[in-house]
Structure formats: C-alpha cells, structure tokens
Design goal:
Distance between the termini: 15 Å
Number of strands: 13
Structural class: alpha/beta
Strand order of the largest sheet: 1-2-3-5-8-9-10-13
Largest sheet: 8 strands, parallel, barrel
Shape: globular
Helix content: 40-55%
Length: 303
C-alpha cells in the first residue's frame, strides 16, 4: 500500500451548543481533519443534528460518527439522514456504522440486545442498504432476514459520490467484513482491557484485513482510536502512570498505535513507524488531548 497522508480527528460529546460550535472551529483551526461523535443515550447531543451544527460554523472540517449503533435506527433512516448531513455540510460526512455494544444503552431504552451473531447480521444488511442508497440513481429494493425495503427513494443525492463508510471492530469476523465493505477500517485494540488471553497484535489484525480485502486493500484507510496520549518530555513517568491506570505492561502499551507518548518529535517518529509497518494513517483523539497534540498535527497532517 502506498502511504496515505496522515489524518487526525477529535472526538467529544456535549449538550452545550456554544461549546460544541467553538470546539468545531478550534478543531478546524488547529489542522485536525475531522470532528467525530459517538452514539449513546447519555449526556450528549444526538449525532446527526450535532454534525450539521458543527458544519454550519466550519468550512473544511470533516464530520463523522464513531459510530452509529445500528440497532437505534432503521437503515432507511440512517441512509437518508447521512445523505442529508452530507448535503447540508457541503459533502463532509463520514458515516461510521457499528453493531452496538454498550448494554446500558439497551437497558435504558428497552431496545432488545440481541446475540452477537444477530447484531452482526443486522449490521451487514444495513451496510448493504446504505451503500445502495448512496449509489443507486432512483430507488433501492432489498429483502433480507432483518430488513426489507421496497422502492426506497434515494433522495437527497449526496454531494460525495459516495460518502465514505467507516466500520471497525476487534475480532476477525468484523474486521474482515469491514475490509470487504467499508472505506475506512477502524481497528480496536481493546482485547487486552477485555482480558482476552494472548490477544492478537495490531499487525495480525492488519493481516486479517489484507486477506479479506484482496485487491481493494490499497483503497482502504486504516484508523485507530489513540486512547493513551501524553505529549511530554517525561515519557518514562507518563508510561508508568499509564501502566498503573490500565494494568497493562509497558510492552503491551507500546505494541499498539493507541499509545502515543513522548516528545513531539518522538511521537512523530512513532506515527511514521506505525504507518510504515502497518499502514495506519488515521488517528482519533479525545478532546482532552487536542491542545497538547496540536504540534504533532502541525508536523504531519496531510503528509
């Protein structure tokens, strides 16, 4: 794969319009590529209208979901809302889709929390319907196990042709599905925190993606949530604090691109290494890391 240019995004959740729009402006001004929203029934805006509000005060910032819980919306509604966001933001939508995982969202709402195979099956069908909605000239008809649409009008027409779809996961089946169907594949490394014995490495997960993607691998953008971030000259102290907080060894922490600790130049070198060895070029950070990470973005964004 030819090295893709680096992209960096910021993720946050809030219920304050002024704060949200000020954040969007700042993210754009600092050179980050995108602003992302999660999808939970907690103290946050609903993702789609929030992205439109962010788009209203920015001009180039990409706007995405990381990720929509498939069980909360019918795929016809997902497709129409995503297309609408793409139009209202001038073609800046990135649609992240997921099978759903946070049990509390389901208990709060009374939505049935199906078995993993069922949730995955529903996501597969949703992905098919959404992709068809973005590409078919007039209507979509689909008859699946979980969803059926008949003559679904594919309006409004997106500005992007089509908007990119992001799908992620940590297990082989989901990552290989993403490799076949998505434009952006987000690789989760939560296995260690979940207590999985002998968890696969990031490189192993990339190999699963290559295997499933085949010739389209070169078209994929690989993504990771950089959850362990500290821009500091005291890398040793920061790593010790991370090890204590996560209960992971230094080796485990450093064996994933989720961990970006050290000086600006050291993190730049680490990012270049991860792109060279594993093709990952799209890094998402929580808002609390944004300011300290801005000098890294200034050195690498778009390069």
């Amino acid at each position: 794969m030819t090295n893709r240019p680096f992209r960096f995004s910021v993720q946050d959740q809030t219920t304050d319009l002024k704060d949200w729009q000020e954040l969007a402006r700042k993210v754009e001004d600092l050179g980050f590529a995108a602003l992302m929203m999660q999808d939970h029934f907690g103290a946050q805006f609903a993702p789609m209208p929030a992205l439109v509000a962010a788009g209203a005060v920015t001009t180039t910032l990409r706007l995405g979901t990381l990720v929509l819980d498939n069980d909360f919306r019918h795929p016809a509604a997902v497709a129409k809302e995503a297309a609408t966001v793409d139009v209202l933001t001038g073609g800046r939508m990135e649609l992240g889709l997921g099978a759903g995982w946070m049990a509390s969202d389901y208990s709060k709402t009374g939505i049935a929390y199906g078995e993993p195979a069922e949730r995955f099956g529903r996501l597969r069908e949703t992905t098919h319907i959404v992709k068809a909605f973005f590409s078919e000239p007039e209507t979509v008809t689909f008859k699946g196990k979980y969803y059926q649409v008949e003559g679904l009008d594919t309006s409004p027409k997106t500005v992007q042709t089509p908007p990119p779809i992001l799908i992620g996961g940590r297990q082989k089946q989901m990552l290989q599905f993403a490799a076949r169907e998505a434009n952006i594949v987000s690789i989760s490394m939560l296995d260690r925190l979940a207590g999985v014995q002998n968890p696969p490495t990031y490189a192993q997960k990339v190999s699963w993606i290559k295997e499933a993607a085949g010739p389209r691998y070169g078209q994929l953008e690989l993504h990771v949530n950089a959850s362990n971030v500290a821009v500091t000259d005291d890398a040793q102290g920061a790593m010790a604090a991370l090890a204590e907080r996560t209960k992971l060894s230094h080796e485990d922490l450093l064996n994933t691109p989720q961990t970006l600790v050290g000086s600006v130049d050291a993190i730049v070198e680490r990012l270049l290494m991860w792109r060279e060895t594993c093709d990952v070029s799209y890094f998402n950070l929580q808002r609390r890391f944004m300011d300290q990470f801005a000098p890294v973005v200034a050195k690498l964004a778009g390069k």
